[in-house]
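Chapter review. Work through the record for RBM44 protein before attempting the end-of-chapter questions.
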Amino acid sequence: ENSLQKTSTCSSVNPSGIFVSPYALNLSSFTRLIKRLQGKHPGFSRKEIVEAVQEVRKMNKGVLSGLAISSIEEKASAIL
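Structure tokens for RBM44 protein:
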């Protein structure tokens, strides 16, 4: 019996082609954030909204964890 099993972490590329780290933001939270931003900014494409969220991540030393969704939403809205 091998008690040490390898675990894999799933990372993915979202439909707009941007890599999403599994550690950056919970996928359901990410989806909810994007939907909220799409409702708030209907004139912007999903790609533009995702790029704004990625810019927020860059401004926060490359991570979104630790930021409240509302804070990410505010900062992304300011970028848009």
